[in-house]
Amino acid sequence: MEKLSKxxxxxxxxxxxxxxxxxxxxxxISGKGSNLKNLIKFSKLxxxxxxxxxxxxxxxxxxxxxxxxxxxxxxxxxxxxNKLKTDKKILEILKENKIKLICLxxxxxxxxxxxxxxxxxxxINIHPSLLxxxxxxxxxxxxxxxxxxxxxxxxxxxxxxxxxxKIILQKKIKVSKNDNHISLAKKVLKVEHLIYPDAIKKxxx
Length: 205
Hints:
2 domains; 42% helix; single chain; seven-stranded mixed β-sheet
């Protein structure tokens, strides 16, 4: 038993040491949370320098909230009726949890200028187009309608101007003749899962 106790202590110290090296991240979601789930998977790898400590959603109906219970991650559901109060509340929660980076993943609320200013340079987003093309919504539908030969996704810093912050990472894919907006969305999502964790790794290393 004494030997086992020493091994347990050693394992605990190792985990503590690894944990200290990882940057604490909050992921903001509004829907299914597939990018959230993917980021959680990568956060468990020693080679990725981040850990997800908080999930924030603007709606209790977000299916991605189930990953809070599944992976034992703290969650907060925020009411967006009063933006000034909302900003203050979220900033307090982020401070309490020592969050150093915010990752937006299908978050369907626009952050206020004041909030972005308070967390300046520490908010990133993944957008399903090759920015600066197709900012905003319905990106795949617009790409198909315009006969684009290529589509893709971009990870970028969040600024007060919609989808206009500095690009961290982009990935391009071919649009096939048989693609519609639904099939293209599925193809782009797979690429999103590849580049989002790598973009976080890039800015933290």
